[in-house]
Amino acid sequence: MAAMTSSVRQTEKTVDGWKQARPLLEQWRRDLIEVDVDLKQPRVIDPTSTDSASGEPIELEGSTANRFRGQVVYFTDADVALRCPSGAILVIDNYEIAAISDGKNRFELT
User: Fold this and answer.
1) Which of 19, 24, 48, 82 has the most Cβ atoms closer than 10 angstroms to its Cβ?
2) Residue range 87-110, pLDDT digits in tens
3) Cβ contacts of 75 within 8 Å, gap of 6 or more
4) What domains sit in the chain, N to C, each tagged with a CATH number?
5) Residue 75: beta bridge partners?
6) Long-range Cβ pairs for the range 89-94 (8 Å, 24+)
């Protein structure tokens, strides 16, 4: 029975480095695939209200998260732009990202 279970289980293909990940990120962007993003440090992902004059957040309430879901909208050598389920666009610097995965393929920074 254990042999049947292990043959059904799928393993993720892991890609290391931004250069190797470009085709994968482009495919996710083009197909609008929801991906899981793991951050190196917790960050507040919830949208916050801002003061239009100063641009500063009015309230800093919200829970921090190390992981969230979104769709890749745009990426460069320096950052990745993601559309969150709430509709907000979040731009994350590459150095903040630990891993991005769609369940089948995984991109990790080592």
Assistant:
1) 82
2) 888 889 988 999 999 999 888 876
3) 22, 25, 26, 29, 81
4) 13-108 (2.30.30.100)
5) 80
6) 90/45, 92/37, 92/39, 94/18
Q: Which helix (H) or strand (E) holds 86?
A: none
- What are 109's two structure tokens? 């920074």
Place of tokens 């991005």: 100
| Side-chain half-sphere exposure of 58, counting CA atoms within 13 A | 7
Quote the CA–CA distance of 71 and 67 in Å, as a whole number: 13
Q: Residue 47 has which token pair?
A: 């949208």
